[in-house]
Design goal:
The protein is mainly β. The chain has one helix and 13 strands, in the order H-E-E-E-E-E-E-E-E-E-E-E-E-E. The protein has one helix at residues 2-14, and strands spanning 38-48, 56-66, 70-82, 90-91, 94-105, 108-118, 122-132, 137-146, 151-164, 167-178, 181-193, 198-210, 215-227. It has a twelve-stranded antiparallel barrel with strand order 1-2-3-5-6-7-8-9-10-11-12-13. It is globular, with a radius of gyration of 18 Å. It starts with a helix and ends with a strand.
Length: 228
């Protein structure tokens, strides 16, 4: 019985599954919206020092405009509540980003992404790589960031495991270093594609911040994507 179950899982994993567009958790993918294709992404993130307490609630609203081999994105994060005295409630930094496909087609290949965060003056440039294997999709991102006074880097590695058409398991690792701070985040979750235009997602993970006072936080995220 166990052998039959094992073989069944292997067959499911190696089946070719339709890949739908969705909201990235942390690591960017190399997919670029085609000309005339636009997207809206709504996201929620809760960060707390334990599984039963939330120290910060934030939302994000993103609009993406497809230009063929390039895509322009506008994002407005909103902090609904925080226990930190250094973080104000309300609208946060306004982020504008652009992604250019360098090689590949559809959602696989190599792309360059640049973004600027108005308010914190954080900007950067990164290379993104996406490759689809028979049973898994690999995303990798590596780049440079700066806030005019300090330089740093980002790098991420994500895996998409399509279990069947419409549902994908996501494992995402992301590291960011700026000035004297290191932030490492690992997330695990799933994405359910209702159809080629609508998808919903949810994930849970941990965030480690290494600075003068090292800390670990729990992260919960959820959202949806709409393509039109």
């Amino acid at each position: 019985m166990m052998y039959k179950l094992f073989y069944l899982i292997i067959i499911i994993l190696f089946l070719q599954s339709t890949v739908y567009a969705y909201r990235p958790f942390a690591t960017e993918d190399a997919g670029v919206a085609v000309l005339g294709e636009n997207k809206v992404e709504l996201g929620y993130e809760g960060v707390g020092i334990s599984m039963h307490s939330i120290a910060r609630n934030s939302f994000a609203f993103l609009i993406g405009i497809g230009l063929g081999n390039a895509e322009i994105m506008f994002e407005t994060p909103y902090c609904a509540g925080s226990t930190s005295e250094d973080e104000d409630k309300g609208l946060q930094d306004f982020v504008i980003a652009a992604k250019l496909r360098v090689a590949g087609k559809d959602d696989a290949g190599i792309a360059l992404k640049t973004e600027y965060s108005y308010g914190s003056d954080l900007y950067g440039l990164s290379a993104v790589f996406t490759h689809s294997f028979n049973w898994v999709v690999l995303h990798a991102q590596c780049g440079w960031i700066s806030n005019y006074s300090s330089d740093g880097f980002i790098c991420g590695l994500g895996l998409d495991l399509p279990l069947f058409n419409g549902f994908t398991v996501i494992i995402d690792n992301f590291l960011e270093h700026l000035a004297d701070e290191y932030c490492y985040q690992i997330l695990g979750g799933g994405i359910l594609s209702v159809n080629e235009q609508i998808s919903i997602d949810a994930a849970f993970g941990l965030l480690w911040v290494y600075q003068r006072n090292n800390k670990r936080e729990y992260v919960t995220t959820a959202g949806c994507s709409l393509i039109f």
